[in-house]
What we know:
The radius of gyration is 24 Å and the shape is globular. 48% of the residues lie in helices and 18% in strands. About 3% of the residues have low confidence. The termini are far apart.
Amino acid sequence: xxxxxxxxxxxxxxxxxxxxxxxxxxxxxxxxxxxxxxxxxxxxxxxxxxxxxxxxxxxxxxxxxxxxxxxxxxxxxxxxxxxxxxxxxxxxxxxxxxxxxxxxxxxxxxxxxxxxxxxxxxxxxxxxxxxxxxxxxxxxxxxxxxxxxxxxxxxxxxxxxxxxxxxxxxxxxxxxxxxxxxxxxxxxxxxxxxxxxxxxxxxxxxxxxxxxxxxxxxxxxxxxxxxxxxxxxxxxxxxxxxxxxxxxxxxxxxxxxxxxxxxxxxxxxxxxxxxxxxxxxxxxxxxx
Length: 288
């Protein structure tokens, strides 16, 4: 029966390869790999002889259509892998999986290594909810705009990927946008020289600048926006309706203007502020 397996592979330590992943890669008809040269080393290590072809961001759309046709016409079982970790998470795969779903092809995921989850688990930062952004833009203006959106997100825990050449610049920009943030910067997860830099943003930046191999390896940045939390805590102790009411009285704002300012200040999202304004409006009308 035709199907696609999404197979997680180690992010550094080959000991993290699961027996089930090895079994599926051995038994499938075809392996789709982000970089066949890289994945060949993995297959060789586990003596896996399955045919492999490339599937990367530059051929994803065309190859997805070809593979879907093969799966349907020839009832093939295909495995999707990325260079490291779980496919489709900041890596190619989405197009293939979407088209498989649209065509009624069964898709099964094999649990395994993920840099995002591994970093969160060791970060010492709240992970009940988090926002994952992957790699941010390189240009300063676009990077600052992306960090501004992260800052304004009511989900305060965030996870980013960054290259070793740009890690210092990223942390400097985070310090500029979120000076009270707490960070855990994870380097070379699961590998021999794995390390983590934890603390407030100033402290982490100093640690990185003093690290002799800072420009080597791969980075996952887990952060917590304390700037937002301070505003949120101060704000919601009073209650959003009360904050809006204060702005009506002290600044002579309309409800619409008060909602916009509350959202701009990061006290609450625009939607939350709007809901609170309806509550306040009803209270005012009842009072009259």
